[in-house]
Amino acid sequence: MAIELNVNGEKRTLDVDPSTPLLWVLRETLELTGTKFGCGAAQCGACTVHLDGHAVRSCVVPVSAVAGKKVTTIEVSGNREVSALQKAWTAIDVPQCGYCQPGQIMSAAVLLAETTTPSDSDIDACMSGNVCRCATYVRIRSAIHDAAASLKGGK
Amino acid sequence: MGAPSIGRRRFLQVSAALGGGLLIGFVWPESARAGASTALLPEGDFAPNAFVRIATDGRVTVIINKSEMGQGPTTSLCMLLADELDADWPKVGFEFAPVDPVYAHPGFGIQMTGGSTSTFAMSIPMRQAGAAARALLVQAAANAWHVEASACRTEKSFVIHDASGRRSAYGDLADAAARLTLPADVPLKDPKDFRLIGKPLKRLDTPDKVNGTAVFAIDVHLPGMLTALVAHVPVFGGKAKRIDSAAALAIPGVKQVVDVGSGVAVIASSFWAAKKGRDALKLEWDLGPNAGMSSAGLRAQYKKLAEGPGMVAREDGDPKGAMNSAAQVLDVEYELPYLAHAPMEPLNCVVDLRADSMEIWAGTQFQTVDHAAASATAGLDPQKVKLHTTFLGGGFGRRANPASDYIVEAVKIAMAAKAPVKLVWTRDDDMRGGYYRPMWHSRIRAGLDASGAIASWMHTIVGQSFIVGTPFEPFIIKDGIDGTSVEGSADTDYAFPNLQVDLHTTTVGVPTLWWRSVGHSHTAFVIESFLDEVAHASKTDPLELRRKLLAGKPRNLGVLELAAEKAGWGTPLQHGHARGIAVHHSFESYVAAVAEISFEGGRLRVHKYTVAVDCGRVVNPDTVQAQLQGAVGFGLTATLYSAITLEAGRVVQSNFHDYKMLRVQEMPQVEVHIMPSEEPSTGIGEPGVPVMAPALCNAIFALTGKRLRNLPLREEDLRS
Predict the structure, then answer these.
(1) Which positions in chain A touch B622 (Cβ < 8 Å)?
(2) Are B206 and A138 in contact (CB < 8 Å)?
(3) What values do phi and psi take at B52, rounded to 5?
(4) Residues 2-61, chain A: which have Cβ within 8 Å of B?
(5) What is the pLDDT of residue B477?
(6) ipTM of this complex
(7) Fold (topology level) of A80-152
(8) Whether A142 contacts chain B with CB within 8 A
(9) Phi then psi for B53, rounded to 5 degrees?
(10) Which of these CATH numbers, 3.30.365.10, 3.40.50.300, 3.30.390.50, 3.40.50.2000, describes B217-288+347-424?
């Protein structure tokens, strides 16, 4: 079945099993492997992408539900929040193994789009669905605050 | 794994790079290159023994023989080499090494990453390679300028002759340098001249890890590649009895169903087709001899074993006599469960098997072992097999398996598939796939004299060995004692006048493996918690008791005092808060931690860990910080949540809902203090983990009077 997707601003028409989770369409069909497989059950957040600006766990969203919607992944360029977060992540070296970090950044990007100055409890609420086995949480928190400050400063 | 001796000596070798430039490598003097050849070369232009390549455009590429699973060797090994080379840091990059004996661990003799030994083992070889390259570049410049090499200096990838004001870039000298002969003796820098080592430089792998371009094995994509999922046998040691694959094969995209021993593989055109196919399999299992096994049964068995003496791992003085004549005896038991490593990237492997060759992409900590196992499984000459190491989405020991389980499984599937294939384990495969940190039971006793001093200390340990039956057995098992079972206890740094450590090694059908900090993950919990019990019984401050027992151990004492001082040990806390302390020596490094907790709204809240570390000379202090921050979270996860349990032979847990991970809202503040040291650089990936559980449980005792001797803590332990 042909399904039309908009991924990172680009229109794609795909012929895939409509029950396929968006994650595997991104990773296998479109070869956008920055979005990661962690649990397959919306338990870890490694597969987080944006659907019309909302964070979703792409491992449990069938691609048929995404038709006509805007999908944003870690590979996006020119996304204000994602760029600011990537800079902040790099400035304080958040990643260790790095596997969960695209998902962490995509979750945090939604927070920053909605909240200019997130509090620690805002961060807790938004980021509690994203597991980091290396436990880089101290730096994730700092980097979100740093990115928020840089966006407010217009940098 | 204990720290190995760095015995075998390698010799430097210089050669020209294909396409121009300078290569510095090492060779083994005995030319022990069996099983390796240029056939193992990855794409690219460096020789199999290279450790650094300097291109004619000035780029410096360091060849990394260690797996990057977050602990930072891609940056620290580059720093070690680049410092001696006097390279311009922004021009320095890295590539992962192919499989070759020259990249073997100098102590363990195989190419592998583990035991927190990467910096320890590679500091000198990386510095030697950098210094050799620098010496050649200087000589090349001196020859061109007709001056003495000793009249030249180097800075940021330039050779400079101050007397004449001439300077030449490394890239411009690389070809000429490659034609020179290495000087016999290349001195290393005096540490006071280090320009990079000791600086908190930014990680070289971060940019690719924040934009999604870092390649983990699961990201490798080959033309025509199929994906395989395996319905694994639900009980360890079982096998498939009847396979009805009709419904699976009817699913579009499913190509093949094949019994691979460890389970039944479904090979399909995509992950989702393979998943649907796996779900549609109708399988009957022969569950084998372990079908009746349960955690409850094992606990009862271990408890009974602990009542009797095991094999003696250490005996000092007369522990039994001193125990019998003690004024007071404490005699308690501690229990710890099986633990899954649960790396964020589930196990996976890509295999491209051709008629007479094979390429493998894997996130592995065990290149030599996996390469040999894959070659043997495929029946191929090892020289025809290339193994590419990718980034690892977490390792923690799981990807260093002497049985090469997921590699062998992938090769077996590739042999059936007749196409490139990617094996993907789903999270439940990963959680239920075995190779756990063993379950441990300890009986521990202290006999106190009339003054409350420890007269006798006896520790009986019960648990499995994952070394028996592996090639590591001759190195690690001595006189029947598996050193990894008793490490941290049999080699305790505490001065007990009479001491016994004994071990019951059990044989259980659950595959086990090293798990970040290995034996120390259980011994430190038991010893550091029990010392707190002794302190309480003898009405001594827990810090003071440790001070007395560590007299004459300056490095243990150093971190203990530093953590205590920085945490304000002994000073008043906010009402309702309490502290707990622990100190432990592992992987040649020393770590102390003070945990601060309270019960907020009736529930445990971990506010802060103050951590002090002595890991010798620090290469990158920010990596040390990061590893200890991570160790707090990793240790807390195990303390609060983690247990793999068995019922009717089956693993109960399957995903992160029942094998929970610490999350951001539970992460305490972490303050790390590094002891300045000029001792050799030692481990940092593992040594932070052991102290986290006992520091927390000691804090809970200080606040509530409840002594928690079983991990993970129960729900009621977390409530006030």
Answers:
(1) 93
(2) no
(3) -150, 145
(4) 17, 19-21, 24, 27-28, 31-41, 43-44, 46
(5) 95
(6) 0.98
(7) DNA polymerase; domain 1 (1.10.150)
(8) no
(9) -125, 130
(10) 3.30.365.10
